[in-house]
């Protein structure tokens, strides 16, 4: 039987400059879900990519003295570019789409024409306040002190021929369906109150004021609005409207689009209206996540307040950075980033709780049993609580992972590691080791610790794939013992497992020294 499919996407990123830790937050979350779902047995399609058209890219290229395509190629595929970043962060995407790819552009022209033929797109006149240097239309409410919000210069009334999409026609349907696909529910209220209930307007979907975009093939001079181009990536990447791929029927409808909260409107209204108009089933879920903030403001390049994932991963390691992003922040809400929070979290959870547990346990098996436990092991009532907690962990973890409550899922895993550290203090293996008659009891204690480590590690695999491999190697867990099926039973690890000493997994970070070195970066 074919495996059930699971399709997850991130937004496609603007290659306007280097990506920061805020972009990494969403992409790591999607990667964690993709890895988790693969472990659950799904045939996963994990899509990410880049959104390469638009006036800003055209301008940046001009300023850099290169063509727009050369400009985006450098940021995407150049040294330390977006592809390098996702490789560094171990992002296991299945497909990477660039909106400058020929097959995508061909599909967009077909989509635009189909909507035009169905009268969902019509030609009209765009009227508004125009800023000539910025070549942009603004509405009254967008102006700042009556001037252009981008450059602060005067605007004047202007009219321009343009194509419009009949978004308004689908307002009622969207109001009816939104509660089924949009999460978290607070985002539904925002969309209803701010956009849908006051009345949805048709939206201008072509531009003539710049040229870096996909031409409307039946009306040269017009290019397709960048959001129509960008949103459609989720279906063109599967082969909708092109022959490059052939898995639209297999993976669509998408199981979840992860998007930042400022682009929820475009994904939960414009995209949905386009799909209804094209008679394509709707995505099962659009999940609007929160932002990483720096000093209370959204981290963003234009404000100059960003943190570089490259620098942070050099400091603490890729897996620790991935863990931090998923553990520290609730995916649905905003959260403040500071270097101090990062360092303290890694020290507390990874160096102290998990890392310590692994190194102490492995060291004791080596010291007391030459690295291999004896088969004879004697249990005790005191073991019950640890064993029950370990066996019950997966159900709690799974229910949180399914809700994208990564932070809660991870808090529970680390809680078990911390419980195991307490079990070491309660059972005092160093005391048992003094008396040869207590050897079988000592072996049972160490076995329970190794098995608890294994269970925690299986659940950490989607988050820290490389470190988990190292832990498995240290505790002698074979491939079969690295699956979710193997964590609801306690006692799967061979009783006489052999351990191997490994490097320190998560070295303790010297907070004040690192803070000094990081200051200003
Ligand atoms: O919006 N914290 O691209 P983009 C969390 N091309 N997430 C953040 C963030 C932060 N500080 N800063 C940015 C676009 N992001 C479009 C998408 S999809 C069809 C087209 C997130 O590069 C942001 O919320 O500006 C968004 O979801 C994503 O990065 C891409 O942002």
Summarize the entry for a quick read.
The protein has 521 residues and is α/β, with parallel strands linked by helices. The protein is built from 20 helices and 15 strands.
Layout of strands and helices, then pairs:
Blueprint: E1 5-13, H1 21-39, E2 43-50, H2 55-64, H3 68-77, H4 82-88, E3 95-98, H5 102-117, E4 121-131, E5 136-138, E6 156-165, H6 171-181, E7 182-183, H7 185-196, E8 203-204, E9 206-207, E10 223-224, H8 226-231, H9 233-236, H10 248-251, E11 256-260, H11 264-277, E12 286-289, E13 292-294, E14 297-298, H12 309-316, H13 318-328, E15 335-336, H14 339-369, H15 384-402, H16 406-427, H17 429-432, H18 439-460, H19 465-475, H20 511-518
Parallel strand pairs: 1-2, 1-11, 2-3, 7-12, 11-12, 13-15
Antiparallel strand pairs: 4-5, 4-6, 6-8, 9-10, 13-14
Helix pairs in contact: 2-3, 6-7, 6-11, 12-13, 13-14, 13-16, 14-16, 14-18, 14-20, 15-16, 15-18, 16-18, 18-19
Bound molecules: ligand ME8.
Ligand ME8 binds next to strand 1, helix 1, helix 8 and strand 11.
What does this structure look like?
The chain is 48% helix and 13% strand. It is built from 20 helices and 15 strands. The strands form four sheets. The chain has a six-stranded parallel β-sheet, sandwiched between helices. It has a four-stranded antiparallel β-sheet with strand order 5-4-6-8. Helix 11 links the parallel strand 11 and strand 12. Helix 13 crosses helix 16. The chain starts with a strand and ends with a helix. The protein binds ligand ME8.
């Amino acid at each position: 039987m074919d495996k059930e499919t699971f399709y997850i996407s991130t937004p496609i990123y603007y290659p306007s400059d280097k990506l920061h830790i805020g972009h990494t937050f969403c992409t790591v979350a999607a990667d964690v879900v993709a890895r988790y779902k693969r472990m659950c047995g799904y045939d996963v399609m994990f899509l990410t990519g880049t959104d390469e058209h638009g006036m800003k890219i055209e301008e940046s290229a001009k300023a850099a003295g290169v063509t727009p395509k050369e400009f985006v190629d450098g940021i995407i595929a150049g040294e330390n570019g977006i592809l390098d970043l996702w490789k560094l962060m171990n992002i296991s995407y299945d497909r990477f789409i660039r909106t400058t790819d020929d097959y995508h552009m061909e599909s967009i022209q077909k989509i635009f024409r189909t909507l035009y033929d169905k009268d969902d797109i019509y030609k009209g006149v765009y009227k508004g306040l125009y800023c000539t240097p910025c070549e942009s239309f603004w509405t009254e409410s967008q102006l700042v002190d009556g001037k252009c919000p981008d450059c602060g210069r005067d605007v004047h009334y202007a009219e321009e021929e343009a194509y419009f999409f009949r978004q308004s026609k689908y307002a009622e349907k969207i109001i009816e369906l939104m509660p089924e696909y949009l999460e978290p529910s607070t985002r539904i209220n925002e969309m209803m109150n701010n956009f849908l209930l006051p009345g949805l307007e048709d939206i201008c979907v072509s531009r003539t004021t710049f040229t870096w975009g996909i031409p409307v093939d039946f009306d040269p001079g017009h290019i397709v609005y960048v959001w129509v181009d960008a949103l459609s990536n989720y279906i063109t990447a599967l082969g909708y409207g092109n022959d490059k791929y052939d898995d639209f029927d297999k993976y669509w409808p998408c199981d979840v689009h992860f998007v930042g909260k400022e682009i929820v409107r475009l994904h939960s209204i414009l995209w949905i209206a386009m799909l209804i108009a094209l008679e394509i089933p709707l995505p099962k879920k659009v999940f609007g996540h929160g932002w990483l903030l720096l000093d209370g403001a959204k981290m963003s390049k234009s404000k100059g307040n960003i943190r570089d994932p490259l620098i942070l991963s050099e400091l603490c390691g890729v897996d620790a950075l991935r863990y931090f992003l998923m553990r520290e922040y609730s995916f649905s809400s905003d959260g403040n980033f500071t270097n101090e929070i990062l360092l303290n979290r890694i020290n507390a959870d990874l160096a102290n709780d998990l890392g310590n547990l692994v190194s102490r346990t492995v060291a004791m098996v080596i010291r007391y049993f030459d690295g291999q436990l004896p088969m004879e092991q004697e249990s005790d009532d005191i073991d019950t609580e640890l064993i029950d907690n370990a066996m019950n962990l997966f159900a709690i973890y799974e229910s949180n992972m399914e809700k994208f409550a990564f932070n809660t899922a991870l808090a529970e895993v680390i809680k078990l590691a911390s419980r195991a550290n307490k079990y070491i203090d309660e059972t005092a293996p160093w005391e048992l080791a003094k008396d040869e008659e207590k050897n079988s009891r000592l072996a049972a204690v160490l076995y329970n610790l190794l098995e608890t480590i294994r269970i925690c590690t299986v659940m950490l695999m989607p988050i820290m794939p490389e470190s988990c491999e190292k832990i498995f190697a240290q505790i002698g867990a074979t491939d079969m013992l690295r699956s979710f099926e193997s964590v609801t039973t306690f006692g799967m690890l061979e009783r006489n497992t052999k351990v191997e000493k490994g490097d320190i997994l998560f070295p303790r970070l010297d907070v004040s020294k690192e803070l000094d070195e990081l200051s200003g970066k």
